[in-house]
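FAQ: What does a multi-protein file look like?

Like this. Sequence, then tokens, then the next protein.
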Amino acid sequence: MAAPIGLSSPWRTSTLHRLRKRNENEHNHLHSIQESHERLSVQLEDQRKTNASLLSQVDQLKKEKLELQIKADSGIGPSTSDRPDERRAVLEGKNLKLMEELTDMHRTKGQNAQKIIDLNQRVKELEKLTQEKEAEVLQLAIKSNAYEDEIKNLEKAILEKENANMTIRDELSTIQLMCTKTEDNLKRVMEENAELVTRWMQEKAKEAEEINRGNSVIHQALSVKRERENTRSRTASESSVNSQMCVSPSLQGGAGICMGSSVPSRCINSIEAHDSEVNTVRFCASGNICVTAGNDRKVKVWSVAGGQITNKGTLMGSNAGVVAVDFDVQEQHVLGASNDFAIRIWGIHDHRLRHCLTGHSGKVLAASFLGDPNKIVSGSLDRTLKIWDLRNKACTKTIFAGSSCYDLVTTDSAGTNIISGHFDKRIRFWDIRSDGPTHTISLQGKITSLDLSYDRSYLLCCTKDDALQLIDLRQNKMLMRCEQDGFKVFFDWTRAALSPDATLAAAGSQDGKVYIWNVNSGDLECALEEHQVPVIAVSWHPSGKELLSCDRQKKVTLWA
């Protein structure tokens, strides 16, 4: 069989050598059989010729014997003597000998014929085996060519990989050199930055002193004006307040008078408050202003009076949507918890960003002042609560809650007790002086919001199983579960609100309605319809007469 063209690899040369050697072995064995067959064929032909010659001689002798018998019977030829008998005996001896030879020849012929049959069978078997071997050799040659092509492809791929590896090594060396140079530049820049920060802090300190002096003058003027307005308002309120009024314990200076909450029945104003979703809305304790926050990264301050919602300023500085807000007890500052993992504090009157607290590794969905305007607690999706001190702008304690926090409230004016609602359907009670929770309550759905009554005796929980639940904190007992067909909690940070006198609970739904329940009976009072998209948050006015709601389509609605 001819060798494949282009054999140059050592393994191919070895394979070809072995195939040739096996071909020679098979051919030599078959060649000896063919030579034996040819030799036996020649011998058989010679035996046939010899047999034919002997048969001819036998026929000739038979004819001579017949002629002699005829002559002897007719009396022709020699006289009766011993010569014819002797000759006949000789001829019979020859005939017998020839017959024996003929018999041997026939026996030899039969044996040779059998050998020829066997050899022919063997030749056929060897030819069949040879064909199979040739087919196998052909398959091996095809596989060999395929392997050769594959090896060439692999060699080409290896060469490409080596070239790529060499290129990457060169790039790595270049990058290492650049990194070394960059580190040197970074060190130099950090030194320059430290120097600039020091100089900037000095300049800012000077600027702050000047601004504080100017603010002092402004605040004095505002204080005089506020005292005059408070004097006029007290004079007017003393003539109209009756025995049914109740004062919120969390408010100072007699602000936030609640004469009993009433069920809102109509929309008196609706505005587009932000450029995108409005995530939260909240009245301050006095009810003079409210703030909203949205995904447009803005916190806006509003004045609500006479059914009108008037913008008083916009608080900038957040790098992502703001989802929670809170006022300090003095109503001088407002904080915002943001999706950029930070908490920011602004001045309400001057709209300046005072602090930016970073340290969480997840979105901050809840934050609140801890009684003291200089202390803040925050809860994040990173499963931690953090206590912050605004005087040194640092985190003073990190509490590992074990589950993402969606909302939290504080239960005392000292700010030592915290209640947090979590993704794992649990409400955890904390004392910041200890590391672990002091108590835990499990609900049927993950908690989206918590709201505390003014006397801090009742806790309203909104859960993702589409229900509001009222808990008596004095007994740690579930008092009421409020739910209704059609009420669906759409967001993980949907905020429900408890009225100032803790008799009504309000929450927004996926269908755009604001549902209001009587928490004493658990009955639905009404479902307010104005929003066209899911409602995210609601907030009661401290008087209990008005309600604000916000949705994911930029709108804030005032109900009364």
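And here is the next protein:
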Amino acid sequence: MSVAAAQQAITQGALDAIFSDPDHVDQRFPVPVLQCLQIKPLAAQQNAGGQQPERYRVVLSDIRNYVQCMLATQANHVIHDGSLVRGALVRVKSYQANMVKGKNILIILELEVASELGVHERIGEPQAFEAKSQPAANTAIGGSNFYGAKNESPAPVKSEPMSSRMGGGVNAAPHSHGNNVIYPIEALSPYTHKWTIKARVTQKSDIKTWHKASGEGKLFSVNLLDESGEIRATGFNEQVDQFYDLLQEGQVYYISYPCRVTLAKKQFTNLPNDYELTFERDTVIEKAEDQSSVPQVRFNFVSIQELQSVEKDATVDVVGVLKEVGDVNQITSKNTGKPFDKRELTLVDDSQFSVRVTIWGKTANQFSAQPESIVAFKGLKVSDFGGRSLSLLASGSMSVDPDIEEAHRLKGWYDSQGRTDSFATHNNMASMGSATGRVDQTKVISQVKDENLGMENTEYFNLKATIVFIKQDNFAYPACSSEQCNKKVVDQGDGTWRCEKCDIVHARPQYRYIMSVNVTDHTGQLWLSCFDDVGRVVMGMTADELMEIKENDEDRFPAIFEAANCTKLHFRCRAKMDTYGENQRVRYQVMSASQIDYRTEATKLSDMIKQLSVGS
């Protein structure tokens, strides 16, 4: 197709009509034809469960003007199949027009590449479309180094709703429900009006109440999912009575405007969406007859091994085999003084790592899954406590033996080989080592001493050694059971224990290991200091359990220590100079311990033998 024919096909003036004459644009330009001047991928952003879906920005021109646009993810196929390239002409079938920071932005919901019109160099001399001189709200579309973009300092601004049009066609992302157009969740923004979404409730909270000097109230929230994304919706007071019983987990509903769209409060949600919904008195919610056309749940799994590279306080999704199930314990919040029930679980997966997962409240009390079940968690908060551990957020959810590909794969792996495998645990230095690029070297005991590790600087090393003696006196201390406190508590003499830091009295303490262990290898012996996580690996039980045996079964108690001797483990250690009174000496603290992976060790030895053979 010639340039002249392409120029004739482009709907000149369409961009001006979209932004300046929204009431009549449908009649004047039913399907705008524009030229693509530039394509640029948005930088990937980390979210709760890994990476957000890829997003693209494009610049479209009608010869007179050009405007920045963002492709909705359902339109990404034109990038993936290579049909949308620079210079191509497109038919824009569905769009949403916004004003952002004083700039006009088009969100493209559906477009078609007009391949019969050819690919051409820029046609004409289009100018940046001048936005109306009024302030607009900042959103996530900003950026620099893009066609026609200027660096501007942000200002507190206000938004103006612009036009939107949802195109027809059987495969169009938006469609109709009654007289309303069905929007994809990812297209919702404060500038969208008269919308309806069709979404599945993937999580529903309990009703929560608050009491303040200014008054009292109640609220609940739900997570909503469709094929394009997820969003959180909250109902307050009257809307709790209106919608709480109507909305049920796992069911699909039509939810229609009026329903307020605001910036998401990230402290209350783990969903990768910049916006959230607030139900209003006139919000319309209707259960859908077709319950099968919306996905059940969307996971973005990370393997347990990959947790060591995930930042603290990030939110992730994890699926694994349930290896251990702890009892329900009660702790007291040091901030509010309220008691909380918790249960600790141990998950493993085929990355050969294990991790501790804490679940809370009703979820902890009602947990009934059996060991060796497959459990998928959505919305786990990553903690660096004990290296890496996970905690299920109030907005998170859990599925036992879900019918998903990852669960079936893990079940097959565990039945065939995983049941007899050994699993490594995360260590306190994993994130630091990965951030600094430092690789901890494996040493033998003679090297640790001869190289004076820890004499001048704090140093870290790996050690494979066998336990030959464990001091039985003072192997544990009574600790505060408040979340992340762990300070020593004092016996009050009346059966209660007091934490001076939290200013709380506990009915009983939570014992934690603080052990001195003598280890040996073929070159010498070394004393190591071990804390609670390492003590659990060494002894094979919690300090609470061992203390109970000491108090109730004196004959069994020394036998447990004897059984722990002659165990060969992989230790990751820190060497650091400590001062005791007027004396200084190097203290070797174990940061983590794990069972020896003999398959990996055999491979390493085989590689070393091969290198020696080559050298000779």
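Q: Is there any per-entry metadata?
A: Some entries carry free-text notes. For the entry above: The first strand starts at residue 33 and ends at 41.
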